[in-house]
Amino acid sequence: MSEPAGSEGALREAIAEVGRSLFARGYAVGTAGNISARLGDGYLITPTNSSLGALDPARLAKLDTGFRHVGGDRPSKEVFMHRAFYEARPAAGAVVHLHSTMATAIACLAQPGERQPIPPLTPYFVMRLGRDLPVIAYFRPGDPAMATAIAAAAAGAAGVLLANHGPVVAGAALRDAVAAAEELEEAARLALLLRGASPRQLTPAQIDELLATFG
Ligand code: 13P
Q1: Exposure on the CB side of residue 208, measured as CA atoms within 13 A
Q2: Parent domain of 97
């Protein structure tokens, strides 16, 4: 019997599918990156040390509403990173963390504390990420101390850049978080391509209009 849309089974399949797609298109390599999504009774998150290209829907880790591991394989070591986003952004339905190349390059160039490490060049970057993309200080992967810094930044931003590590983005649903991660990577690519040039940026009025129209 097939699962009704919106069920846990459908969400498990969707996470595996977006993982495959991101991996196939080079947004993730090796075992880098992790994906989580909110359920009625907790969360699903990709297992630690798993390739996003080969996720088994049945083995995704399940967490309860207190982020305790209650099923599936051992969860990503970045659970606290995802948790910080869900707690800071109650409307978030999914969180995606990648080490995608261009965004990570910016994360190596930008200074912790910066809020706009990527200029507002294109509408979709602003529509998906908003005004700010705070840069968080470097922490080793899996360091729970990162959570406090992320929580403070995520309250006012849909995404952050972890210095020398990579982007983390949230969205209302899985497809929104994935779209935001992809837009962020493309905006980072443009920023690097145009580095040293003086590209025209969106004006504050154009940014206001985008945010008023698309939220
Ligand atoms: P996990 O394999 O534990 O999810 O960690 C991967 C990663 O991207 C660390 O930042």
Answers
A1: 3
A2: 8-214
